[in-house]
Amino acid sequence: MALQFLITEHSRRQAKALFAPLFCPISRSFSRHLSGSKPPSFGIAFDIDGVLLRGNTPIGGSSEALKRLYDHSGTLKIPYIFLTNGGGICESKRALELSKLFGVKILPLQVVQGHSPFQQLVNRFEYRFVVAVGKGEPAAVMSAYGFKNVLSIDDYAFCFDDIDPLASQKKWVVDKTSDDRDSFEDQARRDYVKSNKVEAAFIVSDSVDWSRDIQILCDILRTGGLPGSEIKLVQQPPLYFAHDDLEYKAAFSTERFGMGAFRIALQSIFNSIHPNPLQYTSVGKPNRSAFKNAETVLGHLYDQRISEHKFADISPFKTLYMIGDNPSVDISGAQQAGYPWFSILTRTGVFKGKGNDSKFPADMVVDTVEDAVEYILKKEGSS
Length: 383
Ligand SMILES: [Mg+2]
Fold this sequence. Notes:
five-stranded parallel beta sheet
C-alpha cells in the first residue's frame, strides 16, 4: 500500500502551490526588473536572526539597508539572498513574510534556509518512508522538495499508543479527538506506520518537544526504523540535521539553544544506550556546501540580470559578502568557503565584542547591518 494518504491531497496541493516559485526559472519580468546599468560584480548573503531580525522585529536599520539594494522604483539592482540556518516553513512562504517585514519584494529564490540542501537528497529518498522533525511545517517543507512518503514526527507519534509516557501532561499536543483516532483513515494510517520501517529522519527545524523527539528518534535509530520492535544491532537509518547551531539570538536577552544543542542531547543519550555511536550529517552553515549553494543561487539571480544564457562554470562574482552575527557559523563558514567570500560580522546578535572575534576573526566588523551595507556599497562604488 502506498503511503499516499499520509499526505492529503489538500496538503500536497497547498505545498506545491506554496513552493512552486522556488523551482520556476526566474520570470522574464524579473529579468527585466534586473536589467539596468553596469552589472555589479558582487553579491550579498544576509544571515537573518541577530542581523536583520530579533524575533520578528527588524533590527540594525535592516529595512533601510535592504531598500538600498533596489532602485527608486523598487526593482532589485544588487543580487542578494538570505542565507539562514532557520526554517520550518517553505521558502516561498518565508519570502512573503520577509517581504512584509522589510517592505521590499523578496523572491522565494532569495531565501536559502538550513534545510534547503535536503532537496539534493530527493533522488535517494523520493518514495522512501521518512520522518520530518521540527517546528512549523516540516513535512510540508519536505513534500514540497519532492519527498513523497514523509510524515511529521507529530503525526508519527500519534500513530503509537503510549510512545510518549508524558503525552497526557503536554496539553499543547493533545489536540486530536478520540473521533480522529477511531476514524478509518487514521486506523489505516496507524497500521501502515507501525509496520513500515522509517528509512531516514530529517531534523528540519528546531524540535518543539525535546523529550518526545529524543525518545522517538532513539526508538527509530536503534531498531532500524521500527519503534516497539526488538532492539538489535542493525544499520542505523540515516539521520540529517538542517544545521548544527549550538545557540542563536532570538527575542530573549541572552542566546537560546539551537539545533546543535538538540543534537548533543540526542547524541549523548543515544550513545549511552547503544553500542555504536550516533551517525549523522549536518547541512547548512558553516558547511562549505551551504556557501557553494549560496554562490550558485546568487549566480542564478545574476544570470538573469545580464543575459538569458547561463554562465556555466564561470562565476560572475569578484566578491561575495556574508553578513552574519555568529562567528562560529557565519564567519567560520565564509572563511572555509574561501574566495570570493568576504565576511562581515555585526554586533547585533551573538557577537557583541568591541574588537574582532578571537577564534573566527571576520574580514570586517561593524555595529549593524546598515553599516555593513554602507561599507559594501561604498567599496564597490555603488552607493
Ligand atoms: Mg544569526
